[in-house]
């Protein structure tokens, strides 16, 4: 549970806090600022927990950002793409081949 909304049940026009059962009217723009404020001001420990998890998730996503960093380079030429793929394949299949040879 890493989102503010997970601390609330939805009942018709209201968000109902699971911790203190306080009802908060749903905003028309479906923003979560109201419930975020409630959690932050009334249940700071739970709110802090969410913030911690967010930071953790950002760290995990760090690996994915490598791809976007290299995206302009990959689009530069077809040759670059081929080179990158063959490098990736070489790295990826290397250990597998070693294992197969070991078994044989
Ligand atoms: Zn509450």
Low-confidence stretches: none
* Spatial arrangement of strands, main beta sheet: 1-2-3
Number of helices: 3
Per the principal axes of the C-alpha atoms, what is the gross shape?
elongated
Q: Portion of residues in helices?
A: 55-70%
Structural class: mainly alpha
**β-strand amount:** 5-15%
Can you tell me the number of structural domains?
1
Mean pLDDT: 79
The rounded Rg comes to 24 Å
Main beta sheet? 3 strands, antiparallel
The arrangement of helices and strands along the chain is: EEEHHH
How many angstroms does the end-to-end distance come to? 47 Å
Bound molecules: zinc ion
Describe the structure.
This protein has 104 residues and is mainly α. It has one domain (4-103). It is built from three helices and three strands, in the order βββααα. It has helices at 33-42, 44-76, 78-103, and strands at 8-11, 14-17, 23-25. A three-stranded antiparallel beta sheet has the order 1-2-3, with no helix packed on it. β1 (8-11) and β2 form a beta hairpin. α1 packs across α2 and α2 (44-76) crosses α3 (78-103). It is elongated. 7% of the residues are buried. The model has no long low-confidence stretch (mean pLDDT 79). Zinc ion is lined by residues 17, 19-20, 22, 38, 42-43. Zinc ion binds next to α1.
Short account of what is shown:
The protein is mainly α and 104 residues long.
Characteristics:
DNA binding; 3 strands; 11% strand; mainly alpha; elongated; 3 helices; metal-binding; binds zinc ion; 3-stranded antiparallel sheet; 104 residues
């Amino acid at each position: 549970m890493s989102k503010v909304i997970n601390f609330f049940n939805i009942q018709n026009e209201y968000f109902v806090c699971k911790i203190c059962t306080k009802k908060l009217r749903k905003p028309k723009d479906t923003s979560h600022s109201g419930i975020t404020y409630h959690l932050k001001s009334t249940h700071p420990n739970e709110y802090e927990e969410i913030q911690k998890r967010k930071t953790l998730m950002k760290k995990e996503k760090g690996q994915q950002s490598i791809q976007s960093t290299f995206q302009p380079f990959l689009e530069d030429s077809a040759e670059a793409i081929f080179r990158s793929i063959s490098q990736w394949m070489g790295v990826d299949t290397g250990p597998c081949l070693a294992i197969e040879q070991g078994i044989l």
